[in-house]
Amino acid sequence: MSTAGVSDPEQALKYAVQHTQDDRAEVVEGVIHTRRSRSWDHAAATETIRDQITPRVAELRCITGSGNLDLPKSQNWYVPDLAVVPAELARGGGALVPDQTLLVVEVTSESNAETDRVVKRKRYAEYGAPLYLLVDRVERSVSLFSEPGPLGYTRADGPHPFGVPVRLPEPFEVVLDTSGL
Predict the structure, then answer these.
(1) Which of 42, 119, 143, 175 has the fewest CB neighbours in a 10 Å radius?
(2) What angle do CA 69, 37, 115 make, to 5 degrees?
């Protein structure tokens, strides 16, 4: 895509974020956010979740990663901390949309906690992500949101304090040990 002739603000923002030097740049409600390097405890929380779901993810013929998620017809372009997507969709080379995921995981930091708790939760539901797992390191809790709809998720399991097991429903059927988060 060339920048010449891009007059649509949504497309211009998404073009800009895709061509920054920071591969973790996002657009959240029309504002470009570049992420600093994640802290080791942030990375450890993500890996703790990944390690627990990997056997089931392989059985489902899916992959885990933190690729780009486009929210069409909005000024939003997300890079989740972790997402589970069917392997065949991951080979297309472009961004996916939230309803193509099986699970989206966001791990909060001081700088993004409210965005992950409120804005992303609403947008992931609006765009059909079936499961949204929020690992809130600020509040030291885990919440699982499911049954997405245009006004948000209609089902919430949590917040549970770290250490309380959290069950991921179908297609995962995995109980997460949250004590190491």
Answers:
(1) 175
(2) 50
Enter the DSSP assignment of 164. Answer: S
Residue 180's nearest CA partner among 55, 44, 57, 40 is: 44
DSSP-derived pairing of the beta strands 76-78 and 62-65: unpaired
What's the rounded Cα separation, in Å, for the pair 134 and 101? Answer: 15
pLDDT tens readout for residues 12-31: 555 555 545 455 666 666 66
Per-residue pLDDT tens digits for 131-155: 999 999 999 999 999 999 999 999 9
Give domain 38-69+78-176's CATH superfamily: tt1808, chain A (3.90.1570.10)
How many Å apart are CA 14 and CA 7, to the nearest integer? 12
| CA 180/CA 45 separation, integer angstroms | 7
Question: Domain spans of the chain?
Answer: 38-69+78-176
SS3 of residue 142 by DSSP: strand
